[in-house]
Every structure is written in C-alpha cells, then in structure tokens.
Amino acid sequence: MRSIFVCLAATAIFISACNNNRPKNTTTFSSKDGKEKVSIDMNQVAGESDAMEKKMDELKKVPPLSMDELKKLLPETLAGIKRTSFNANSMMGFAVGDADYRINDTARLKLIVYDCAGEAGSSFYWLNYWAKMNMQSETDHGYTKSVDFNGGKALESYEQNNNTYTLMYSANDRLLVSIEGENTTLDLVKDAARQLNLKVD
Q1: Best exposed site among 95, 136, 141, 156 by fewest CB in 10 Å?
Q2: How far is 29 from 23, CA to CA, in rounded Å?
C-alpha cells in the first residue's frame, strides 16, 4: 500500500514539473487513514525539470554494463565485513547486482547497485531516486527524506518494523547505490557508503 501511495505522489511530481505555472509552496499528500504523509517541494521540482529530462536522455544513450562488469562493483568486504553472498541479473531490462555482508545472525549490510543505463534503467532512476529527491515521507513506523551526503544528495530511510536503515545515492552519473543496514546503526550504513569506490570504465 505504501509503495502505491508513494508512486501516486511521484506522478504528481512529474505532472507539476511539466507545468509551466510553477507552484510557490510545499504540497502535502496524506493517505486515507492519515498514517502516512508525503511532503513535496513543488518549487524545487519545477526548477529541476529541465535537468531531469536531460539526465534521462543521457542515460538512455549509455550502453548497459555486462554481468562481469557489474559483479566487480560488489566488493568482497564492506566496512570490514566479509561478503557472504551475491547475485547479478538483468531480468528487469537493466542490470542489478546485490550482495549481503552478514555481521551475525540478526545484523547485516546489504548492497544493491542498479545500472540505470538504457530505457528501462533511466525510468527506474527517475521513479526511485530523482522523483523522491524533493519528497519527505513519514509514517508511524518510519520515514524517507532527502539528505546531504558526500557532496551530493541521498535518500535516507528507516523502517521500524524490521529495524532497517537505507541510504540510496547516485554514483558515476549512471549508478544508483542502495545500502541497507538491518539491526545496525545509521552511522555504519553511511560509513559503508563512504568506503565504496564504484568505478565504471
């Protein structure tokens, strides 16, 4: 239900960004039960619409990474924790790689790297990163918000139900990187992100 609600809010962002009459305030959407609120800075959205279209056009022209190239982006250790499993595939029309770094029976880090090249990848980039960059979402059980990170912007989320922090940010002008920390701290998640060195030739 939450993902549907956020998608509807993201659609509103897209419509507003394409509108020449730029709004002058922040708009808040609430779910029917009132348990979730999404706030959107419409001024910021409208001001960035041209840059968004340019970025998507650029991504559509970039050749996708091969599976071997993607696997190289999943380090054997992350924040001093050994990789316990990994997977790479392109089933959704763009390449995705993920790896688990288990700390103990209940705590772990999970790294997900999305290659957003091509038509499908650029759409994923917009819906899951760019469209949410001017959003703030809050429920009884967590939040999602835009934060400053490493000289750029990132999406920071927390889910109380499974005690998971997530940080998503863009790298190398084509990758979306997500690091989840289950039963860890937000500081560990951010430290792991800072230690990543994701190079694409």
Answers
A1: 141
A2: 15
- Type of residue found at 30: S
pLDDT score of 9 more than 60: no
Cα–Cα distance measured from residue 160 to residue 143, given in angstroms and rounded to the nearest whole number: 9
Residue with tokens 């001001």: 47
Q: Which residues, 6 or more positions from 191, have their beta carbon under 8 angstroms from its beta carbon?
A: 79
Which residue, among 112, 123, 117, 126, has the nearest Cα to 168 in the 3D structure?
112
What are the pLDDT digits (tens) for 63-82? 888 889 999 999 999 999 99
- The structure tokens 């920071």 sit at 156
Residue 140 corresponds to which amino acid?
D
Partners of 28 in the β-ladder: 39
For 123, counting Cβ atoms within 10 Å of its Cβ (0-12 exposed, 13-18 middle, 19+ buried), the class is middle
